[in-house]
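RECORD TYPE: inverse folding
INPUT: C-alpha coordinates
STRUCTURE:
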Protein backbone atom coordinates (compact mmCIF):
# COMPACT_ATOMS: atom_id res chain seq x y z
CA UNK A 1 0.00 0.00 0.00
CA UNK A 2 1.25 3.43 -0.81
CA UNK A 3 2.57 5.32 2.22
CA UNK A 4 0.19 8.24 1.81
CA UNK A 5 -2.81 5.89 1.97
CA UNK A 6 -1.78 4.23 5.24
CA UNK A 7 -3.50 6.78 7.50
CA UNK A 8 -6.74 5.97 5.68
CA UNK A 9 -6.80 2.49 7.18
CA UNK A 10 -6.82 3.98 10.68
CA UNK A 11 -9.50 6.52 9.74
CA UNK A 12 -11.66 3.79 8.18
CA UNK A 13 -11.21 1.59 11.27
CA UNK A 14 -12.10 4.47 13.61
CA UNK A 15 -15.20 5.31 11.54
CA UNK A 16 -16.29 1.67 11.48
CA UNK A 17 -15.91 1.37 15.25
CA UNK A 18 -17.71 4.69 15.79
CA UNK A 19 -20.65 3.59 13.63
CA UNK A 20 -20.85 0.22 15.41
CA UNK A 21 -20.70 1.95 18.80
CA UNK A 22 -23.31 4.52 17.79
CA UNK A 23 -25.60 1.80 16.53
CA UNK A 24 -25.27 -0.19 19.76
CA UNK A 25 -25.52 2.81 22.09
CA UNK A 26 -28.59 4.36 20.51
CA UNK A 27 -30.97 1.45 20.10
CA UNK A 28 -33.73 3.35 21.95
CA UNK A 29 -32.18 6.80 22.26
CA UNK A 30 -31.25 9.63 19.93
CA UNK A 31 -28.34 12.05 20.12
CA UNK A 32 -28.75 15.23 18.08
CA UNK A 33 -27.39 18.67 17.44
CA UNK A 34 -30.27 21.00 16.74
CA UNK A 35 -29.58 24.40 15.25
CA UNK A 36 -31.66 27.31 14.00
CA UNK A 37 -31.50 26.20 10.35
CA UNK A 38 -30.70 22.46 10.47
CA UNK A 39 -30.33 19.44 12.73
CA UNK A 40 -28.30 16.24 12.61
CA UNK A 41 -28.39 13.19 14.85
CA UNK A 42 -28.35 9.44 15.16
CA UNK A 43 -30.54 6.97 16.95
CA UNK A 44 -32.42 3.70 16.54
CA UNK A 45 -30.00 2.52 13.87
CA UNK A 46 -30.24 5.58 11.62
CA UNK A 47 -28.29 8.75 10.95
CA UNK A 48 -30.69 11.59 10.19
CA UNK A 49 -30.58 15.23 9.26
CA UNK A 50 -33.22 17.89 8.85
CA UNK A 51 -32.51 20.72 6.44
CA UNK A 52 -35.43 23.12 6.91
CA UNK A 53 -37.78 24.17 9.66
CA UNK A 54 -41.39 25.25 9.51
CA UNK A 55 -40.88 26.75 12.98
CA UNK A 56 -37.30 27.06 14.21
CA UNK A 57 -36.73 25.21 17.51
CA UNK A 58 -36.49 27.35 20.61
CA UNK A 59 -33.78 25.19 22.20
CA UNK A 60 -30.75 24.86 19.89
CA UNK A 61 -27.72 22.80 20.90
CA UNK A 62 -26.93 19.18 21.80
CA UNK A 63 -29.83 17.04 23.00
CA UNK A 64 -30.44 13.45 24.02
CA UNK A 65 -33.89 12.14 23.30
CA UNK A 66 -35.93 9.07 22.59
CA UNK A 67 -38.33 7.81 20.00
CA UNK A 68 -41.92 8.91 20.43
CA UNK A 69 -45.30 8.42 18.78
CA UNK A 70 -44.51 4.86 17.73
CA UNK A 71 -41.28 5.84 15.97
CA UNK A 72 -42.75 8.80 14.08
CA UNK A 73 -40.85 11.49 16.00
CA UNK A 74 -37.90 12.20 18.27
CA UNK A 75 -38.75 13.61 21.69
CA UNK A 76 -36.13 15.74 23.46
CA UNK A 77 -36.06 17.03 27.02
CA UNK A 78 -35.57 20.77 27.52
CA UNK A 79 -32.55 21.14 29.84
CA UNK A 80 -33.66 24.46 31.36
CA UNK A 81 -37.26 23.33 31.95
CA UNK A 82 -37.40 19.98 33.80
CA UNK A 83 -40.39 17.89 32.80
CA UNK A 84 -40.93 19.64 29.46
CA UNK A 85 -39.96 18.34 26.04
CA UNK A 86 -40.19 19.13 22.35
CA UNK A 87 -40.37 16.85 19.34
CA UNK A 88 -39.14 16.57 15.77
CA UNK A 89 -41.19 14.62 13.26
CA UNK A 90 -39.21 11.90 11.47
CA UNK A 91 -41.44 11.40 8.47
CA UNK A 92 -41.86 14.98 7.26
CA UNK A 93 -40.35 16.71 4.27
CA UNK A 94 -36.73 17.82 4.60
CA UNK A 95 -35.93 15.02 7.05
CA UNK A 96 -33.50 12.46 5.66
CA UNK A 97 -32.42 9.16 7.21
CA UNK A 98 -29.70 6.66 6.35
CA UNK A 99 -29.57 3.32 8.10
CA UNK A 100 -26.32 2.68 9.95
CA UNK A 101 -26.30 -0.83 8.48
CA UNK A 102 -25.97 0.75 5.03
CA UNK A 103 -23.02 2.83 6.22
CA UNK A 104 -21.39 -0.28 7.69
CA UNK A 105 -21.92 -2.23 4.46
CA UNK A 106 -19.72 0.35 2.76
CA UNK A 107 -17.20 0.94 5.56
CA UNK A 108 -16.35 -2.63 6.58
CA UNK A 109 -15.20 -3.84 3.13
CA UNK A 110 -13.25 -0.61 2.62
CA UNK A 111 -11.55 -1.03 6.01
CA UNK A 112 -10.78 -4.68 5.31
CA UNK A 113 -9.32 -3.83 1.91
CA UNK A 114 -7.11 -1.08 3.32
CA UNK A 115 -5.80 -3.33 6.11
CA UNK A 116 -5.31 -6.31 3.79
CA UNK A 117 -3.27 -4.16 1.41
CA UNK A 118 -0.90 -3.33 4.23
CA UNK A 119 -0.56 -6.74 5.90
CA UNK A 120 -0.51 -9.14 2.96
CA UNK A 121 2.84 -10.89 2.54
CA UNK A 122 5.36 -9.05 0.41
CA UNK A 123 7.55 -11.01 -1.94
CA UNK A 124 11.18 -10.66 -0.77
CA UNK A 125 12.39 -9.32 -4.12
CA UNK A 126 10.23 -6.16 -3.87
CA UNK A 127 11.42 -2.88 -2.40
CA UNK A 128 10.07 -2.56 1.13
CA UNK A 129 9.31 1.15 0.63
CA UNK A 130 7.64 1.30 -2.80
CA UNK A 131 7.22 -2.37 -3.94
CA UNK A 132 9.43 -1.89 -7.00
CA UNK A 133 10.65 -5.21 -8.47
CA UNK A 134 14.39 -5.33 -7.63
CA UNK A 135 15.27 -8.61 -9.36
CA UNK A 136 16.98 -6.91 -12.31
CA UNK A 137 18.83 -4.25 -10.31
CA UNK A 138 22.58 -4.73 -9.84
CA UNK A 139 24.12 -4.83 -6.39
CA UNK A 140 26.69 -2.21 -5.45
CA UNK A 141 30.29 -3.33 -4.67
CA UNK A 142 29.48 -3.33 -0.94
CA UNK A 143 26.65 -5.82 -1.49
CA UNK A 144 23.80 -3.42 -0.83
CA UNK A 145 21.11 -2.52 -3.31
CA UNK A 146 19.53 0.89 -4.01
CA UNK A 147 16.01 1.02 -5.38
CA UNK A 148 15.98 3.04 -8.61
CA UNK A 149 12.36 4.05 -8.00
CA UNK A 150 12.50 5.56 -4.50
CA UNK A 151 16.18 5.47 -3.48
CA UNK A 152 15.72 3.13 -0.48
CA UNK A 153 18.78 1.03 0.40
CA UNK A 154 18.43 -2.72 0.96
CA UNK A 155 21.03 -5.13 2.29
CA UNK A 156 19.94 -7.98 0.04
CA UNK A 157 17.06 -9.31 -1.99
CA UNK A 158 15.80 -12.82 -2.53
CA UNK A 159 18.03 -15.07 -4.61
CA UNK A 160 15.26 -15.57 -7.21
CA UNK A 161 16.75 -15.56 -10.68
CA UNK A 162 15.76 -12.74 -13.05
CA UNK A 163 14.10 -15.09 -15.51
CA UNK A 164 12.10 -16.91 -12.80
CA UNK A 165 8.46 -15.94 -12.23
CA UNK A 166 7.34 -14.84 -8.77
CA UNK A 167 5.87 -17.53 -6.51
CA UNK A 168 2.20 -18.24 -7.25
CA UNK A 169 2.36 -17.02 -10.85
CA UNK A 170 2.34 -19.55 -13.69
CA UNK A 171 4.95 -19.20 -16.43
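DESIGNED SEQUENCE:
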Amino acid sequence: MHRRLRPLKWIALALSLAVISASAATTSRCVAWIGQSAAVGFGEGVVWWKTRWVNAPAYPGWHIGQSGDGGQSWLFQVPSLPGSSFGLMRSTAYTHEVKLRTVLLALIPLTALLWWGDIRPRPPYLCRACRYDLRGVRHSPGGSLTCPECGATHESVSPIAEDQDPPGRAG
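NOTES: The radius of gyration is 27 Å.
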